[in-house]
Write a structure and sequence with these properties.
The chain is 42% helix and 26% strand. It is built from 6 helices and 9 strands. A 4-stranded mixed beta sheet has the order 4-9-8-6. A 3-stranded antiparallel beta sheet has the order 2-1-3, with helices on one face. A two-stranded antiparallel sheet has the order 5-7.
């Protein structure tokens, strides 16, 4: 018995495939479950027309992706990021930053289709944008480093503070006397007993 599959069936075939199965499997499982229909002449003609229309739509989508890929291949992006004295940038440049920069140039690209490793150093890189399963664009981008200025000694320690012991020695005696007075009566009480 010939069946036209309406969805993918593991071990049997994919959607819109015409497969031969035993009549019991087709009539008792595939057709009642909605996974297939009998492959009559009219059903085959309908399938051929659907595949033809689907091929036209897919060709149109692919042509649009190729046109966009040509425009994207002509684009070059530049990023500047603060970097340490060793050249390692703070943070990274990834698909999110590339998508935002492309948005500024008028390209509405989803960041999920941009393939790039997170860039953590200055240099030249290439981002691959997968527009279609058969079409990809390559966008070169450059990351330049803005070096941090080394801090001067005055900036490191704004004001020198004296250790705690030195500050206590400079404190007036009036602060220390109540502590001594509080200790003295306690000693006198112990001696009277």
């Amino acid at each position: 018995m010939e069946i036209i599959l309406k969805e993918d069936v593991i071990g049997l075939g994919y959607k819109n495939d015409i497969v031969n199965v035993k009549s019991g499997y087709g009539r008792n499982y595939l057709i009642p479950q909605g996974k297939g229909v009998i492959a009559s002449e009219s059903a085959k003609k309908v399938l051929a027309e659907e595949l033809k229309q689907k091929a036209i739509k897919l060709a149109k989508i692919k042509a649009e992706a190729e046109a966009l890929a040509e425009k994207l291949n002509a684009v070059s992006l530049n990023f500047s990021a603060k970097a340490s004295s060793t050249g390692v940038i703070y943070g990274s440049v990834g698909s999110l930053q590339i998508a935002a920069e492309l948005q500024k140039l008028g390209f509405d690209i989803d960041r999920k289709i941009i393939a790039v490793k997170d860039v953590k150093a200055a240099g030249e890189y290439v981002a691959v944008i997968k527009l279609h399963k058969e079409v990809a664009a390559q966008v070169p981008f450059t990351v330049t480093a803005e070096m941090d200025k080394p801090e001067t000694p005055a900036e490191e320690a704004p004001a020198e503070r004296k250790p705690r012991k030195e500050r206590k020695e400079e404190a007036p005696l009036a602060e220390e006397t109540p502590v001594e007075e509080a200790e003295a009566p306690a000693e006198e009480e112990k001696t009277e007993e």
